[in-house]
Amino acid sequence: MYIYDKFDQTIVRERVAEFRGQVQRRLAGELSEDQFRPLRLMNGLYLQLHAYMLRVAIPYGTMSSAQLKKLAYIAQTYDRGYGHFTTRQNIQYNWIKLEQVPDLLNDLAEVQLHGIQTSGNCIRNVTADQFSGVAGDEIEDPRIVSEAVRQWSTFHPEFSFLPRKFKIAVNGAARDRAAIQFHDIGIQVVRGPEGDVGYAIYAGGGMGRTPVVAPLIRAFLPKAELLSYLEAILRVYNRHGRRDNIYKARIKILVREIGAEEFTRQVEAEWALLRNEGVNLPEAEMSRIQKFFAPPPYEKIAAPVVAFEQARASNPAFARWVETNVHTHKVPGYGVVTISLKPVGGIPGDATAEQMSQIADLAEKYSFAEVRVTHVQNLVLPNVKQADLFAVWQQLGKIGFADANLGLIGDIIACPGLDYCALANARSIPVAQQISERFRTPERMKEIGPLQIKISGCINACGHHHAGHIGILGVERAGEELYQITLGGAGDETASIGELLGPGFKGDQVVDAVEKIVNTYIELRQPGEEFLAAYRRVGKAPFKERLYASA
Amino acid sequence: MADENTQVIEPSEISAHRRSNKAAGGKIATGNRLRDGVVIYLAANGEWTTDVDQARRETTADGEAALKGALDAAFKANYLIDAAVIDTVPSDTKPARLREQIRAVGPTVRPDLARRANW
Amino acid sequence: MPVLSIAVGSDPAPINDNWVRLADGAAPNATDRVIVPFARLKGGDNQIFGAAAVGVELGGADQVEDLKPWLDRLSIVVLRFATFKDGRLFTSARMLRQRLGFKGDVRAAGDFLPDQTAFLLRTGVSSLEVSDTFPVDAAASSARAYSVRYQHAVDGLPAAYDERHAP
Fold this sequence. Notes:
By secondary structure, chain B is an alpha+beta fold. In chain B, 27% of the residues lie in helices and 18% in strands.
């Protein structure tokens, strides 16, 4: 993974010093809250219901075991012993004291972590496929370009006060595991006509109150020209994106209002000039970054790995976990382990300091000291030898994270919702807990098959409900929590936006409604047909009929 | 994952247009303490308290104006942020809205962290 | 209002500013250095060029390219922030310098934050019009907050990648 040199380290250190000064000025009354708010937001510091919340960036979801240890330390020292992994591959802490933030950031800086641009109307932490570098279907490790984008976007002097926030995602494989078409810019690594590596560029996607699947605006961009092209998109957006209405300020609205074709024309015109203005990264820097993502020293392992096969044969629970949570590694004899942070009845994405610390130890011991965060709020040990999988699974069992539910109905995304968030209209977490309880048995989950449930507590859609096979949106109606259900959303390479089924449900009726939908699917599916495919075949009518018939 | 800058809402406006359906209840003043973000309420003795049960409850227009005055002064003194006058249920300092009940108690999903028993 | 000059490597310094805003429709004195709204330039009012020096004030919605016909006769371009959130003006400043080659003074005015001084400097702003209570110290610390940058901008300073691969 990428390791800071003195230049990167200096920037982060200088940021801590700058923010320390700003906090002092605020506490001394020299800065008003109106003046301070944008400054703290650009450092990931929000005010939520109960306290300040700090969001720490985990660039493109990759971190070292030492960094995860430090995150555990932060949870223990400055928070209430836990943190929450988010759909942007970040972590947030819920009980932060403003006066302690400068010291906290100083501690983070020791391990090359920070909260820079995890909020505010700027280019946010870039996200990427959590299986980068280890998946077999990859053209190029998307973290190489992600790191280039991270550096370019950090304290960009022209683009730090955009009309709204701006999110970029990169995917390097055929399978889209980064939901790139729901981003302001989605970058897909592709091969060009001559077999050379470049990028397909999508722009203007997003969720929120106006969900949009991003159109493709350029089918092939040469590798060396990425930054000037991004700069052209950002410049067109910065100049022409709407600033009169916060709900219409995202780039998706600009692209929609002027049309993808006209938007592309403007970007290309700007790019024609910008590409010669010294924005592109020199080849030498690109290769320097690339070297950090060279594969770790894998062992040559002969298949089959006998101990692993034996454990799988003799222990059904382990076998089930391997089947659901271990992805094929590009190197024979290794596996990619996804640690589900979705125990039955648990809070999706939450981990205690102790759990983080234990996972860091596992990464240290079994996975070349590397951990990933997924946008589905799970963690990944990317490089585990098959021979070690049983030991890893057992260790995970001890900390309550051995659930075999990846991609199944128990693997729910939920935003913090009204339990924590100042913007939420309804709670999300209790709904996730109830659903995971209802469908708790492995047999039931297996019977249902791949099914993604995503829950947001307000229209801002941090819980990605638009992209859920079953999406749940919490709203407030006459002082009560009410949940609307959408079906058919997808965040992969077949991206689609879920369709609203009908009137919403009260909190105590949501799980029954989900169960009716699940049962309807099971009855109408064809052999081997997954939920999403079945929905796309039959549409919403049968589900709607069943759901509202007896209501 | 929520976005504080998604909406720019004056907290006092929230109470004006989102919590006005409990006319029979009272009003209390709340905010978050600047230095640590802790939820606080104006108490009957004029101090700020973290305990909603100690909050000064007002039922008249003059009383509400006094709450607003105290919030305004504390905001200007850089003592609290996100100031709001919120509705309570009749004859108790229990906030009327679920959102404010959660602020007073803590996340419903973490009873171990609760600041008081739920109502 | 007080004016501070800003430049790479030095603290913001007060300068004796004798620019005046020309009243709507008024003719300038030949000895005056006048700043006019962009609309007056676009209206084809050539009498303003009877002044000793001429400048123009742009808001966030103005397109800097539209200045081209007059640019070589302008000594200052004022960029007025209606709100500090109006990031369009950073683009305007940068394009004025890089795309249009403007060599005169580029001045930020209005509601910008002292903490934005580093970005203003990087995008080619050379002076700040400020209120009497403007915290100059805060602007000074912003200007020297960072010794490393990840991008090329107008200030001509090397990016981290230049320094990494310097011979």
